[in-house]
Amino acid sequence: MAYTEDRAAWFEGQGLWEHVPESDWQNWGWQLKNRITTLDQLERYMVLTTEERRGIAFAGHKLSLAITPYFFNLINRDDPNCPIRLQVIPREGESITSAEEMLDSLGEDDHSPVPGLVHRYPDRVLFLVTDRCASYCRYCTRSRLVSNAQDYNFHPEFEQGLRYIESHPEVRDVLLSGGDPLLLGDKKIEHVLSRLRAIKHVEFIRIGSRIPVFLPQRITPELCEIFKKYGPIWMSIHVNHPRECTAELRAACERLSFAGVPLGNQSVLLRGVNDDADVMKALVQRLLRMRVRPYYLYQMDLITGGSHFKVDVRKGIEIIRALRGHTTGYAVPQYVIDAPGGGGKVPINPDYVERITDDEVVFRNYEGRAFRYPLTSTPLPRVRPPLAAEAERARFVE
Ligand SMILES: *Cc1c(COP(=O)(O)O)cnc(C)c1O
Ligand code: SF4
């Protein structure tokens, strides 16, 4: 069935927590303290499937369960296939490991010169500053370390990472990630940003965060002031489904934008969540309305216990084809596979080019119509006088 939505509606309000004072609801500390983290708490609010109950029993060994009240409100509790529910409530599939899957599927640990820093590309580094998130995504690429349910004991060491960046002048771009960097307090964030800003060769600072989606209350005016002070700082948020685009997320994006933070979005292609062209189109169009430019659409990494989320790559290509030309160019993300073992992100594109020869390129447009662009230039014989002479003659007549 085609996905439909009320384009004018943006979810808002406190939902199940209507009885809570608004000052609590808007307080990010309150949201974190009142997260749903156990089977008992979940069952107080909804009827779980057997699959989910088994998944939750296993989650403690893999990736903790945590959902902020704000995000929990977005779940349709009557629908076991709700796309929001699938993202944050564990299912039994997590306990099944497939032969192709790996704990560290991107070989990040092998490209880590100091703990918490991944230097894969020549000019930029990934700096993991925490192992905690506001809520946990069941398909998380870094579930080996995030939430520390697997006793990975990742202790982010800012100092070592900062010193590495300071002593490597080829690093012009630093991407803060984790876990979620915005879960750190303002003081710590300001410390890291000010240190990075003080490094002459660091031109570009960006933050990868799902906090605006899980905990928009964290995007306080004070935090925005820090971004202003140490900017330009770019941010990639992580929205997978149009229903995550609420009035509160939109307001948080507005605060960030007005603080001069350009916003991009990274989605993961997930079975049952967004592996559908209509869902994806609704998502990217909502993102533009929130001042967010779709950046990447990721093929899911081969993490252990992730196969129940896996989508055929041909489906991903079909989704991109359904977007390009059919909606605003700004709305089309780049579909990528992060090469297993650590080859970096590789674009996966629909093929529009039919053939290229020395003479021409033949390609199809978004409607499937074929066109030809000649690669040769064949000068025509001069049958008319050159333009200058023509102009001269015109003057003479006057
Ligand atoms: C994704 C990633 C980056 C950033 O890649 P861009 O394509 O520049 O956004 C940098 N380092 C690592 C290790 C990454 O995984
Ligand atoms: S917010 Fe990011 S790092 Fe945290 S669990 Fe989700 S995908 Fe993983």
Automatic annotation (TrEMBL):
Q: Which reaction does it catalyse?
A: L-lysine = (3S)-3,6-diaminohexanoate
Q: Residues where N6-(pyridoxal phosphate)lysine occurs?
A: K345
User: Which molecular function term from Gene Ontology is one that the record holds?
Assistant: metal ion binding
Query: Could you tell me the EC number(s) of this protein?
Result: 5.4.3.2
Q: Which Gene3D superfamilies match?
A: 6.10.140.1170, Aldolase class I
Please name the SUPFAM superfamilies in this protein's record: Radical SAM enzymes
Q: Which UniProt keywords apply?
A: 4Fe-4S, Iron, Iron-sulfur, Isomerase, Metal-binding, Pyridoxal phosphate, S-adenosyl-L-methionine
The reply to whether S-adenosyl-L-methionine figures as a keyword in the UniProt entry is yes
Protein name stated in the entry? L-lysine 2,3-aminomutase
